[in-house]
Amino acid sequence: MPAADLDARVRQLRDRECAALDALLRRARTVRDPNATYDQQLTRGQRVADKVASFGGSWNFIGLFMLFMLGWLVLNTEVVRFDPFPFILLNLILSCLAALQAPVIMMSQNRHAAKDRIDAQHDYEVNLRAELEIQNLHTKIDAHQDTAWVELLELQRRQIALLEAIAARPSAG
User: Fold this and answer.
1) In sequence order, what are the residues at sequence separation of 6 or more whose Cβ sits closer than 8 angstroms to the Cβ of residue 136?
2) CA dist., res. 72 & res. 119, Å (int)
3) pLDDT digits (tens, 9 = 90+) for 42-54
4) Which of 38, 105, 131, 172 is the most exposed place for a label (fewest CB within 10 A)?
5) What b/e string do you get for 124-144 counting C-beta neighbours within 10 Å, with b at 16 or more?
6) pTM for this one?
């Protein structure tokens, strides 16, 4: 491939591809943990939102919520009756819980989607580097085969020369 064509193709590479190519040429390691990188940049509020979303989507939450509802119903029908049927205060509490929990869960899901994009980027870089390394290995193997063929041809020439020398000797018979 002419140098001008190679230069044109290198200019078409994106930054990420150039970085992977540069790392390959420098034989630098590009292994990193994208999860650790992502987790380090989270704010305290984001961590809290993730924990709330994690708890809100768990069996523990469902069990505790069912116990709370059962306790509320028993308390208000049998014991104190501070929120009589149709449980208007309970409906207000449940509405507030849903109104607060939904955006927190959505924030957490958006962060996880961003994290998935980072993981996909990392996978792309690893795959690109592996592809470049495989191409490099193919080039080395092809060069080795070319050298081996030359050596085999030279060995075969010597063997033919030896056989011709043996055949040219007068028979001792």
Assistant:
1) 24
2) 44
3) 889 888 888 888 8
4) 172
5) ebeebbeebeeeeeeeeeeee
6) 0.55
Euclidean distance between the first and final Cα of the chain, in Å?
A: 61
Report which of residues 7 and 154 the model is more confident about: 154
pLDDT tens-place string over residues 106-158: 988 988 898 898 888 888 888 888 888 899 899 999 999 999 999 999 999 99
Total residue length of the chain: 173
Structure tokens at 158: 């010597």
Alpha-carbon distance 167 to 144, whole Å? 34
Indicate the SS3 state at residue 125.
Answer: helix
Joined together, the tokens standing for residue 53 give 């979303």
Hey, how many other C-beta atoms are within 10 angstroms of the C-beta on 49? Answer: 20
Cα separation, 95 vs 75, whole angstroms: 20
Instruction: Tell me which residue of 39, 90, 53 sits closest to 69, measured CA to CA.
Output: 90
* DSSP 8-state symbol, 76: I
Report the C-alpha gap between 5 and 157 in whole angstroms: 40
Find where tokens 């034989």 sit: 27
Q: How far apart are CA 71 and CA 22, in angstroms?
A: 64
